[in-house]
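Newbie here. two chains, one complex. Structure please?
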Amino acid sequence: MSSSMKNSEGLRVVETDASYDEVNEYFYERGWTDGLPIVPPTESRVRAMLGGMPWHDADELFSIVPPKMGRATLCQIAVNAVMAGCKPEYLPVVVAALQAVSEPAYGLAHRQTTTHAGAPLIIVNGPIVQRLRINCGRGVFGPGWRANATIGRALRLILVNIGGAGPGIDASQTGHPGKYTYCIAEYEAANPWEPLHVERGFQRNQSVVTAVNAEAPHSMTENIQTDPDEIMRTFASCMATLGVNNLYSQGHPILVMGVEHAQHIASAGWSKRDVQQALFERARQPWGLIKNRGKSKGPRFPEFVDRSDDDSMVPIVRAPEDLIVIVAGGAGGKSMFLPTAGGQSLSVSRIVEER
Amino acid sequence: MPTVTVISTAFAPLAQVVGAGIGQAALPIVVVPHPVGDRDETVVKQRGERIALECARILTTEVDVLEREFADKHYPLPQAVMPR
């Protein structure tokens, strides 16, 4: 690297004749990457990225990111979006995701420094899903889709570079692969019920990001049963396993329902609320079994749990609507369960700004 | 209010970043072995007494002396947490 100067907008620009490989080594050695090669954030690329939200100034502040309490200006967000490989049109989604995790209910300071494995899952709803080609179908959590891969990665790089939660500071005991990128969309066209953002009071034609700090997806196979009651039995057994944080401190765990399961259940006349109610009632364990294991029990149990009665049943959510239910994925008899940290980190939805 | 932060080796670099983030770059940190717990109560008691003595030292030391001591202190993570 050679000389450093400020351009006409006051942004610090470094002049260099270093090669792509040399820039990548330089960034990696300073802990500015996720370990994968980055796209060098040249001045022209950052300017182009800022073109994704031209109605905001580059120095506009969107968040203060813990634990370093770094200033996430639009310019700094754009730098990380470039590094992640985003297109400029993805920038509003990255910004909305950052705004969502910055809401107090999400508890970002704790999420950035906890031993828990969780990563911010970004769920996108609304017309922007088709426009940006965010995968919601087959392989929804997998590779091959630029928007999914780079939007989630941009948020991770922001949390590392602006928030300071890189290796050595991020205290996650194991982490999980979603810490590289964790961005999906809901398959609204295959959803027999109202999509997540509509359930939360937004208009169907609004684009919305929901951020939830989630563990890795766990596959729940039910290729045999098509009766909703039996499918619920499989799901409930999988969800309320000992050691799952939600059993001890509830919160907003996520059911990513496969399209075939959703069709079976809806065709039997069940609503999404019926699914949430059934799992609220069945995904439970007795207090006597969990009281001396797992983790500390926060003050988040529903009032009906009687701690003087070992047979009192403890649910994984405080109320049916706290279980996030979305429909996504391809053909097959599988749905996914994503546990979360518990009630100390809740999901947050934010509108994606578009003009 | 005079305060002292007690943290185990596995989390000391994190405590330093959090301190700096809230404008306390020279936060006095008492670093203790990780994990501080042990099956032997006597061992835990001995560790607790050493920690209490160090807390007392920090709480009775002048601020400018503490700033010099802790401003640029480096807290390497133990091998058990982060292989090098």
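Moderator note: Chain A has a mean pLDDT of 96. The radius of gyration of chain A is 21 Å. Thread marked as resolved.
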